[in-house]
Amino acid sequence: MSNFVALVIIAEFDVFVYASMKDEPLKQLTEREFTEKVFRIEHTTSKKATEQDLSESLDKYGEPRPLKVFFTKRECSNIL
Predict the structure, then answer these.
(1) pLDDT 10s digit of each residue in the chain, 80 long?
(2) 3-state secondary structure the chain
(3) Residue range of the domain that includes 57
(4) How many CB atoms neighbour CB 66 within 10 A?
(5) What's residue 57's pLDDT?
(6) 29 domain-assigned
(7) Residue 8 belongs to some domain of the structure
(8) Is 10 part of any domain?
(9) Is 75 contained in some domain?
(10) Is the pTM of this model over 0.85?
């Protein structure tokens, strides 16, 4: 039983540390508002993406780029 309690404490330790950081400026880097902007998926090679899915990023003509990047349509410098 004591091993289980110790395991739960270890697993929840990061939650306690995060909650104790009130005025820490680096805490903002882990908040949802920041991460949704920074870690937005603009291109993917996922098998779940289709050819019709469009990215929020625009190409040089102002058109939305396709979300799925096919291996055969990559530039030579991006194939390796």
Answers:
(1) 778 888 888 888 888 887 887 778 887 888 888 888 888 777 777 888 887 888 878 888 988 888 887 888 777 887 76
(2) CHHHHHHHHHHHHHHHHHHHCCCCHHHHHHCHHHHHHHCCCCCECCCCCCCCCEEEEECCCCCEEECECCHHHCCHHHCC
(3) 24-80
(4) 18
(5) 80
(6) yes
(7) no
(8) no
(9) yes
(10) no
